[in-house]
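Last lecture ended with a question: if I hand you only a sequence, what can you say about the shape of the protein? Today we answer it with a concrete record. The protein is CN hydrolase domain-containing protein. Below, first the input exactly as provided, then the predicted structure, then a couple of comments.
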Amino acid sequence: MALAPASSGKEPVISPPEVEMNGGADQPAATTVRASVVQASSVFYDTPATLDKAEKFIAEAAGNGSQLVLFPEAFIGGYPHGSTFGLAIGNRTAKGKEDFQKYHAAAIDVPGPEVSRLASLAGKYKVFLVMGVVERAGYTLYNTALFFDPLGKFLGKHRKLVPTALERTFWGFGDGSTLPVFDTPLGKIGALLCWENKMPLARTAMYAKGIQIYCAPTADASPTWVASMTHIALEGGCFVVSANQFCRRKDYPPPPEYTFGGLDEEPSPETVVCPGGSVIVSPSGTVLAGPNFEGEGLVTADLDLGEIVRAKFDFDVVGHYSRREVLSLVVKTDPKSAVSFTASADGERPASAGKKRDDSVYK
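The predicted structure:
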């Protein structure tokens, strides 16, 4: 895709203190940032090969001078287009359970060896990296975005708050403990995944943290997605960079190993399963690069951070255009755990219900 030239503003943006600090990058603050969106398919069920493919795109983006590189939703681990995992109300098939077992095996632990490799790639190519992954936490999977700085440091993660539709059967729900916005020399960077970008309160939380480069990894290739990204850029007075996969049927295992549900017939190997639509939008609502519906590749633009200040002069959604005495938002950022263990006041382990436990078996 063509590189969109930066506009002429030079104003640096001042960072508020409440957002997470990256703690590693010691470069001076940028006034213009070159960002690249990677539009490509995963190598489904093959995480090592997908990591190799990611490195090729990171190297290409870095070679073009990009300082920020964004990958699609679930790039590592794969977005299971067309799969039903054998689910119907009241029934799960044996093959569907086997499909999930393979999908679980392709996911990654955070932290883990794949996270270490991604961190080393960010350091090797000197880029801020935002990567969509399928995170494995025990036997539950999460749709997660990971953040890395150009010193090779893993900064943190965001778990998708609400998986969409059938996604809820194979991905868990994130909570408010993973809604970071990282203060970096490139500006304040954060991400929401796919349709949680349609959640006004989630967006408002990101705006309140001062987000300047708003990353939106997605699996939505509909024409209305670009309209949503444009609205968010205008609403938040921020740059929006959105990455989607471009993939064909042949990018998934052939049938019967992998089948597409809900279709009248099995698609041909060359059938486009997801046409991409990756895009970069400015705070004024100008589409700087994309949308790309043509194939795999990079979508790249220069982001003039001074444009954020000019946009906020018109409309600052959590500043002069807010009515805090009428409308307010509370964001609960504590982690939500299914099980909590507490000790009694004297420090002894609590006894099981109705019966005193023999602690000797635990010694």
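Comments.
1. The longest helix spans residues 47-63.
2. The radius of gyration is 22 Å.
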